[in-house]
């Protein structure tokens, strides 16, 4: 009897090609109706004591194959604490080696964040006094949920997981929300007096459920739709824009993960040739405050000003600032590790992402206070 592998659960993704001895040959399933793949999440059962070799055979054809260099896979025995394990990318195959210390053991591209945890977050925020409402529905009819806190006149919008596999955005949201609702935190209190903060922590809820890397259920990259979303094929973006139209937007932060770059960075609306002086100084104020607040953040390495190419007008960080005059930014966190604050055990992690979420609140306040 050899071991088993399955991924038929919320956020799961893997296909088993062969299992023999201590070795499994695997492939990542392509996003539903879309061309991308890179996210994986699966369980190995009955392998306790074995030193496993798990080979992802189609790694070279993944969306960001260059991201496998220097990458180490995440592994957990309790799905709470995720650590990195020995991983090597060579000859187009990603090979994960791990000595299984439990009968059930999980492997993932990054610490997963499933729908049960998303719902628990919404419930916890509602119980703590936040307003939680559904602003629309996904392609498959799941609720797009918004959490609203604060009573201030300025309107802040925080978006997470347009790209469903970028689960660090969910951990970021937990960190931001936990601080926002801490009555003893002076920064949070001042932010909630200054602004009304709208958080949409899981924009691409269908993609998250299906274990997609990037696309929604219709195979659409939501972060290329903001200049005119099709309500049938990108209803998630249409719903957020409709809700934004009702409130206006003074500041938007869109939280993402980057497969390749081992740094935390901002891609801001200041890169847009159409940016106003106020938008440029807003981005600069955010960066300066976050540099002072969190040593993992840096401004030397990031996307160049032409990022997005012809599709850039459809990115939230371009379209929302143009539509509302807002300061708009994309925050990118690594799948691998932050070279500014490396963690040899966990790499860039759920807890590092949550801390970044908490520390961004002061940087948001620095923009609004100008
Ligand atoms: Zn992204």
Give short descriptive properties of this protein.
370 residues; alpha+beta; Immunoglobulin-like; Aminopeptidase; 2 domains; seven-stranded mixed β-sheet; five-stranded antiparallel β-sheet; 17 strands; 25% strand; binds zinc ion
Short characterization:
This protein is α+β, with helices and mostly antiparallel strands.
From the spread of the alpha carbons, the general shape counts as: globular
Fold-level CATH name of the largest domain: Aminopeptidase
CATH architecture of the largest domain: 3-Layer(aba) Sandwich
Counting DSSP H or I runs of 4 or more residues, the number of helices is 8
CATH class of the largest domain: Alpha Beta
Low-confidence runs (pLDDT<50, min 5 residues)?
none
Spatial order of strands in the largest sheet = 11-12-14-13-15-17-16
How do the helices and strands follow one another from N- to C-terminus?
Answer: EEEEEEEEEEHEEEHHEHHEEHHEH
Task: Describe the model.
With 370 residues, the chain is α+β, with helices and mostly antiparallel strands. It folds into 2 domains: 105 residues, Immunoglobulin-like (Sandwich), CATH 2.60.40; 255 residues, Zn peptidases (Aminopeptidase), CATH 3.40.630. The chain is 27% helix and 25% strand. It is built from 8 helices and 17 strands. The strands form 3 sheets. A 7-stranded mixed sheet has the order 11-12-14-13-15-17-16, sandwiched between helices. A 5-stranded antiparallel sheet has the order 1-4-10-6-7, with no helix packed on it. A hairpin with a 6-residue loop joins strand 6 and strand 7. Helix 2 packs across helix 8, helix 3 packs across helix 8 and helix 6 crosses helix 8. It is globular. The protein starts with a strand and ends with a helix. Bound molecules: zinc ion. The site of zinc ion has 3 residues, from loops.
């Amino acid at each position: 009897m050899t071991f088993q592998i399955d991924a038929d659960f919320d956020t799961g993704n893997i296909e088993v090609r062969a299992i023999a001895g201590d070795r499994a040959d695997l492939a990542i399933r392509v996003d539903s109706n879309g061309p991308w793949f890179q996210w994986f999440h699966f369980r190995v059962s009955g392998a306790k004591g074995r030193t496993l070799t798990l080979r992802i055979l189609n790694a070279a054809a993944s969306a960001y194959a260059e991201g496998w260099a220097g990458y180490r896979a995440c592994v957990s025995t309790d799905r709470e604490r995720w650590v990195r394990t020995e991983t090597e990318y060579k000859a187009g195959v990603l090979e994960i080696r791990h000595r299984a210390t439990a009968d059930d053991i999980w492997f993932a591209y990054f610490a997963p964040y499933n729908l049960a945890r998303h719902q628990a977050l919404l419930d916890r925020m509602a119980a703590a006094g936040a307003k939680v409402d559904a602003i629309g529905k996904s392609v498959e009819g799941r609720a797009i949920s918004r959490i609203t806190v604060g009573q201030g006149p300025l309107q802040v919008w925080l978006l997470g997981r347009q790209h469903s596999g970028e689960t660090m955005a969910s951990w970021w949201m937990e960190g931001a929300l936990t601080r926002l609702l801490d009555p003893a935190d002076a920064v949070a209190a001042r932010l909630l007096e200054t602004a009304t903060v709208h958080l949409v922590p899981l924009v691409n809820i269908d993609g998250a459920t299906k274990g997609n890397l990037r696309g929604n259920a219709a195979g659409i990259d939501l972060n290329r739709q903001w200049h005119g979303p099709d309500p049938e094929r990108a209803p998630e973006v249409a719903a957020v824009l409709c809700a934004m139209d009702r409130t206006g937007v003074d500041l938007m932060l869109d939280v993402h993960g980057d497969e390749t770059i081992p740094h935390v960075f901002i891609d801001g609306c200041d890169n847009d040739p159409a940016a106003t002086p106020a938008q440029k100084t807003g981005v600069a104020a955010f960066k300066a405050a976050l540099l002072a607040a969190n040593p993992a953040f840096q401004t030397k390495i990031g996307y160049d000003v032409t990022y997005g190419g012809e599709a850039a007008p459809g990115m939230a960080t371009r379209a929302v600032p143009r539509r509302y005059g807002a300061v708009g930014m994309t925050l990118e966190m690594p799948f691998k590790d932050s070279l500014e604050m490396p963690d040899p055990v966990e790499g860039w992690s759920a807890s590092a992402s949550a801390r970044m979420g908490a520390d961004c609140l002061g940087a948001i306040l620095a923009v609004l206070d100008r």
